[in-house]
Amino acid sequence: MSHLSWPMLTPPRPLEVWRSWNWELRQPADLTRYRRQLRLEALPADRDDADEAAVERLLLAFEELTSNGVRHGLPPVWTTVTATSTGWLIDVTDADPRDEPVPAIDRDPAHGGLGLHLIARLCAAHGWAPEDGRKHVWGFVSLTSED
Q1: How far apart, in whole angstroms, are the C-alpha atoms of residue 116 and residue 33?
Q2: C-alpha neighbours within 13 Å on the C-beta side of residue 27
Q3: Is the backbone peptide bond immediately before 103 cis, with ω within 30 degrees of 0?
């Protein structure tokens, strides 16, 4: 693997699932609608071990991964968010299993392309893998800060 590559790792399969959301992205407005829904439903009312900062990390990672899928992936693009006892797994899939994600290097930040770098900082784990004819690009956002 070169230093420019995104790690090829199969998404984890959480054992303790609290809730899961699945969305197909057909237009840019879908991302806004699903982000709002996720904000409202991401934490059960009785959870006191996650704070607003954890939810903000989740929403930012969700937006970055999902918008990358919509901009660079081959339709249909699906996003699944799985809430577990320790955090959230975000798995974005598209129909091109061969086109690996490559983080931007030496690009002016004004031109974008920093999303994968941001995911690497926000997530406790991240990667991509071709599976069942689709590309999975994923990140796991922990309930606790990764400082």
Answers
A1: 22
A2: 2
A3: no
The pTM for the full model equals 0.88
Residue 13 tokens read as 């399969």
Order of strands, sheet of 77-84, starting from the edge strand that comes earlier in the sequence: 17-25, 77-84, 87-94, 134-142, 125-131
Number of neighbours of residue 126 by Cβ within 10 angstroms = 23
- Count of residues making up the chain: 147
- Using the 8-state DSSP alphabet, how is residue 75 labeled? S
How confident is the model over 100-145, as pLDDT tens digits? Answer: 887 777 665 555 567 888 899 999 999 999 999 999 999 999 988 7
| Cα–Cα distance, 69 to 72 (Å, whole number) | 5
Residue with tokens 């770098």: 117
pLDDT tens, residue by residue, 63-95? 999 999 998 899 999 999 999 989 999 999 999
